[in-house]
Structure formats: C-alpha cells, structure tokens
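Subject: for your reference before the review

Hello V.,

The reviewers asked for a structural picture of the protein, and I figured it would be easier to keep everything in one thread rather than splitting it across files. Below is the amino acid sequence we used in the manuscript, unchanged from the supplementary table.
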Amino acid sequence: MSDIVPDGVQLTRKRAVLAVLPFLFLGLADVVLLLKWGVDPLWGFMILPPILFMSALAWIAFRSGFVGSGGAEVDPSK
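And here is what came back from the structure prediction:
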C-alpha cells in the first residue's frame, strides 16, 4: 500500500497527544467545575462521554494526518 502522507510530515502519537491534551483538560475541568458548583452529579457524567469521544476523534485525526496537512493536496497515486 502506498504512503499517503506527504514527504517531510512526521506523524507521531506524541504530537497527536500534545495537540489534543489542552482540549481534553478543558473538558475535564468543565466536569469538575460543574461538580464543585453543586449541580446534580448526573450532569457532570452526562457531558463526560462526548468530551472523551471528541478527544479520541481528534487524536485519531491528528495521528492519521487528516488534520495538520495544511490543506496540501495529497496525490493518492504515489
């Protein structure tokens, strides 16, 4: 199978984690803030799955090169 990543682009798990980590921390901080405000704990745990799901999708996107190619066209015939 041909490589679909342009030359000069390094895709690593570490870079993907570093890109997603701030958004994951913001989401988790939101859950903690809701719980500290005394809101029903169910609300905090209701928003937790979407936060984790979107963080996982973002990690996959950064890891696979879907995000971060800078809009460069990739030639699939290579």
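For the response letter, the relevant points are probably these. Helices lie at 13-36, 41-64. The mean pLDDT is 78.

Happy to draft the paragraph if you're swamped.

O.
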